[in-house]
Amino acid sequence: MSAVVELEHFIGYGGKHLNTVRYHPTEAETLIYSAASAIIIENVNDPHKQEFLRGHDNDVSSIDLSLNGKLLASGQLGSPFRKGAVAPVVVWDFDNRSRYIDFNGLAHSVLCVRFSPDGRFLVATGANQMIFVWDVSTGEVVYNRRTESPCFLGVWGPILDLSGRYPSYQLCTTYDSQVLYHVMKFDMRSMCYTLDSDAMQFPPSGLQRKHICGMINGDFLITGTSAGDLCVFNIKTKVFRTALPVCNNGVTSMAQHGEMLFVAGGDGRIKALRGFDIQWDVLAENVLESGVVALTPSADGAELIAGSRNGKMWRLLSSDLTGTLQSASHTGEVTDIAFGPRSDVVCTVSDTGEVFLLDLSDYMPITSATAKSPVRSAVFAGDGEILAAYDDGYIRAWSSEKGVSKQLWQMNCHRQGVTCVRASPHFVVTGGGDCAVRFWHRKSREMLSSFQNHRKPVADLVLDEVSPHVVHSASEDKLVVTYDLKQNKALVQHTSMGGNITSISQRKDHDNEVVSCAQDGKLLFWDVDYPDPTGCIEGPPDVLVRLRCCEVSPNGRYIAAGSDDARMYIYDLVSCQCIQECEGHSGGVTQVRWSPDQKQLISAGKDGCVIVWNFFEL
């Protein structure tokens, strides 16, 4: 018998970067957005239809599509693996979902990528203060320049002269409070394109603004600034016309369809404007719960998608800007995953204090809760309670009712944060940063017992499969300890001679041995009656794999383990062989969990992404 794991769904739009959500310009239902270092192509009406583009080794920080929808450009943060924090720009063939060409020259972060209206040229700007214009068809550099400060905005205007073989192009760029207008013409003498640049004229008093987003609308350049203004420039006369305050915390994104101009701000405000030159009227307005970082109109202009800083995407009607939630994701490292009795509901938590209860049929949150302290662990405790363990030393119980973000109770458990929590019908057991394992009464929440066997923070806890009063704990001090609450003592203490232990699980067969995974890549099996490991599964022979988490499948045949190299490994416990390596995350895998029916696996990563995998036995 063999088994196959396939990637079913990727949840990971973190809302960290400006304008990394784009509707496809010709396919009305296709949405393209970044999730860590992956680019996701998704059907907005069917979340099960996802495709992926992978070619970056750090977070994708900027994306753009050509007007005909044939090319997609993406830029990333500086590579952690290449000298000088190089930030490549990749152009993709969208129809074939393949890599077309790579461009280098930017570093630390790509701030902006934009295709010319005909898709022939690409302008890109970086945090290393460089501006590049590339010819996409030949890969040549048409223009490059180092500016005094990073350039956040580069926008193309309509093509000026389409009659000849070499049309002329309009381009506007901004850095500091400078706004520049360029005309890119073909020079017959040198047989290449050259740029003529002019600075926009400001009032004598000056206007100190940082321009973040913008577009060319007819004869006018419209920009959004970090001060929350909408600035209008006349391109023909190259003169500043007006600055209109539209929101707080900066104008972060701008979109246009027909006569309507949509403006979004860092305060969550979205406005629909119509006007010309210095006269603009607000036709509709909406305020989302968090600052907007992306705004994109659908191909037919009937809808907009807004991405917000709290990792959510909203679907808005263009006519009145009424919004519905499209998706939600974590904004920080996902630290734990928990299943209850149901296989279609899962709880995920993050180090930004978020607790999400997700419905796996549509990947939408049933309920969510946030606290100021990072969450390290979570568990379903019956009675509709979700217990979450926090860095501030508290356990907080949240209601799992739909749409109810209600805290039921809290209790202070450990002085240096709670690292792990598990619950049975009669007690709650917690592990802490103070190296203690403590038992608490389920109803009265009084402390029943405290054990101090570990010398490092408790990494994981497992309730015994057979004896309801027995619990196993593990820590990076290389100890696996078994406690009996009835006898109120630690029964046995195992010591690993290998790497630091990071997680434990328990077999369903083989005398219900405890399985530990460690930073040396080994899975060790421990029996209460023997001091040494009774078995071992080695990691891949050619590389050192640092395992972070493991869990035995519900039927006991397989074990899934997540590692720091961003892979998930599936082992067959009968043959003791690795049967599949699963790639999907951009950062280390922090947790893996099987659904109770064993049809799915959920993995969480340091990249803030949650991946749903389908599991098939053949």
Describe this structure in words.
The chain has 618 residues and is mainly β. Helices cover 0% and strands 57% of the residues. The protein is built from no helices and 56 strands. The chain has a four-stranded antiparallel β-sheet with strand order 1-56-55-54, with no helix packed on it. A four-stranded antiparallel β-sheet has the order 2-3-4-5, with no helix packed on it. A hairpin with a 3-residue loop joins strand 38 (418-423) and strand 39. It starts with a strand and ends with a strand.
Write the layout of secondary structure elements.
Layout: E1 3-11, E2 21-23, E3 30-35, E4 38-43, E5 46-54, E6 60-65, E7 71-76, E8 89-93, E9 98-103, E10 110-115, E11 121-126, E12 130-135, E13 141-146, E14 151-156, E15 169-175, E16 178-187, E17 192-199, E18 211-217, E19 220-225, E20 229-234, E21 239-245, E22 251-257, E23 260-265, E24 269-276, E25 279-287, E26 292-297, E27 303-308, E28 312-317, E29 323-328, E30 334-339, E31 345-350, E32 354-359, E33 364-370, E34 375-380, E35 385-390, E36 394-399, E37 407-412, E38 418-423, E39 427-432, E40 437-441, E41 447-451, E42 458-463, E43 470-475, E44 479-484, E45 489-495, E46 501-506, E47 514-518, E48 523-526, E49 535-537, E50 547-552, E51 558-563, E52 567-572, E53 577-583, E54 589-594, E55 600-605, E56 610-617
Antiparallel strand pairs: 1-56, 2-3, 3-4, 4-5, 6-7, 7-8, 8-9, 10-11, 11-12, 12-13, 14-15, 15-16, 16-17, 18-19, 19-20, 20-21, 22-23, 23-24, 24-25, 26-27, 27-28, 28-29, 30-31, 31-32, 32-33, 34-35, 35-36, 36-37, 38-39, 39-40, 40-41, 42-43, 43-44, 44-45, 46-47, 47-48, 48-49, 50-51, 51-52, 52-53, ...
